Structure formats: structure tokens, C-alpha cells
Amino acid sequence: MGVHKRNGVVYLDVHKLPERPQSDLDRRRCYVGYCFESLATEDPRRADGEGIHHVDANVEFCSVIKTKLGAQRILMGAEMDCCDSTNDGKRFYVELKTSCELNYHTEERFEREKLLKFWIQSFLAGVPYIVIGFRDDAGRLVRTERLRTKDITQRVKMKNYWQGGVCLAFADEVLSWLYGTVKEGEDYILKFAPPFNRLELLQAQSCPDVIASHLELL
User: Fold this and answer.
1) From the centroid of its chain, how far is CA 20?
2) Cα–Cα distance list, 71 to 10, 80, 190, 213 (Å)
3) How far apart are CA 132 and CA 111, in angstroms?
4) To 10 degrees, what angle do helices 164-181 and 115-125 make?
5) One-character DSSP codes across 3-56
6) What distance in Å separates the CA atoms of residue 204 and residue 146, rounded to the nearest whole number?
7) Pairing relation of β-strands 129-135 and 91-100?
8) Residue 170: helix, strand or coil by DSSP?
9) Is the pTM of this model over 0.70?
10) Distant-in-sequence, close-in-space partners of 18: CB < 8 Å, separation ≥ 6
11) Integer Cα distance of 81 and 96 in angstroms
12) What is the tally of structural domains in the chain?
């Protein structure tokens, strides 16, 4: 991601890397995920025999969130899949995910890796619920499970797979390191460098136009 310090504020912008070539299986699984999102947000009054609408991966909510992590005050943007509401009309965001149906051999990897990604994404964005659609190898929806985001850490804690507090402490440490390291008015690239399991901060020569335009409005 890009790192830019202006007026005492550190701006982070995600750099999209070129996607690796996808196999037919990868494309099919990607489509199944988008199809589940479309199905999960369809009008419940739709007739059973009526086909679902056109699958559009670009339909989403965008939210701006003010939060705090350790000593860092954070203003961040997040993409949300959909929202639901309580009986009294209070609305809340819901994240939609898909996974292959679990068995004895795949449950551990699901909890070690996928649940960590699901949790950190939803926790930071303040999303209280995650709905997971489990599919079979043919892409058919087998079942759904609704998880409370705050309950996920308890689910994996007893198995000692990972700890949410450790993840947040690491993020706080990285943000503190960035704020104290980057210089005012300069631009950098922060990247993860496999297989060495380290972060590298490299000098860059440009700042995105959207950040420059924002600064002009301040």
C-alpha cells in the first residue's frame, strides 16, 4: 500500500496488484461467491420458480468509519455486502462469505485461516454479523451459518489457533512504526516481502491524485 504523510496525517492507499491467471475452477468458485451474494440479497417475495437476477459483483455499500486502535485515531473506508434490520427497525451491516462444506480434514484450516480473515475484516469495520454459505464441490448451496463477529475469537481461542488481541496489537505496532518513521511531505510503498515474513518500507515518487485533491479542499 502507499504511505503518504501530509500535515501530520498518514494516508494509506491500497495498491491493487495484477491478478494471477485464474483457472476455470477459480473462475467458477468466484462466480459461486457472487451468486450467493445475489441470492442472499434477493427480494424474499420472489417466486420460488423465478430465476435470480443478474449477478453484479459491483453492488455494495460503502461506509466511512471513525475508530481508534491503541494510540492511533483512524478514519477508514470499507465496503459492505448488505444490511439487515432488527424488529424495531434498527439497521446493521452484514458480511457475506462462501466456503466449501467442512469435514474433519478441512475444519482446522477453515478456522485457522478463513475465520481470521473474516473476523479482522468485519471487526475493524464494525460489522456485527457474518453469514457464510457452505457449498459442495458442484457449487450447490448446502447450508448457511450466521456468526456473530465478536464470538469468532472465542471459537478459536480454546484451540489456540490465533488470538484477536495479538492481531490488533501487531496492527497497532505497525501503525505506530509508520507514523514515527515516515517523513512529512514524502511518499512510500509498504509491502509484505515473502518468504521472509517481514514488512518493507520503500521510498516512492508520487502521491495519488485523490489524496492531493483532498488536501486542496482542507
Assistant:
1) 19
2) 14, 26, 20, 27
3) 13
4) 60
5) EEEETTEEEEEPPPPPPPPPPHHHHHHHHHHHHHHHHHTS-TTS-TTSPP----
6) 43
7) parallel
8) helix
9) yes
10) none
11) 6
12) 1
pLDDT tens digits, one per residue of 127-186: 999 999 999 988 899 999 999 999 999 999 889 999 999 999 999 999 999 999 999 999
CA distance 154 to 157: 5
Count of helix runs (H) and strand runs (E) in the chain: 6, 10
The string over 62-99, giving b where at least 16 C-beta atoms fall within 10 Å of a residue's C-beta and e elsewhere, is: eeeeeeeeeeeeeeeebebbeeeeeeeeeeebbbbbbb
Give the cell for residue 119: 473476523
Nearest Cα residue to 137 out of 106, 95, 96: 106
Query: What angle (nearest 5°) sits at the alpha carbon of residue 156, between those of residues 154 and 162?
Result: 110
**E strand map for 82-176:** 82-85, 91-100, 129-135, 141-148
Amino acid at 200: E
d(CA 22, CA 4): 33
The residue range of the domain holding 212 is: 2-217
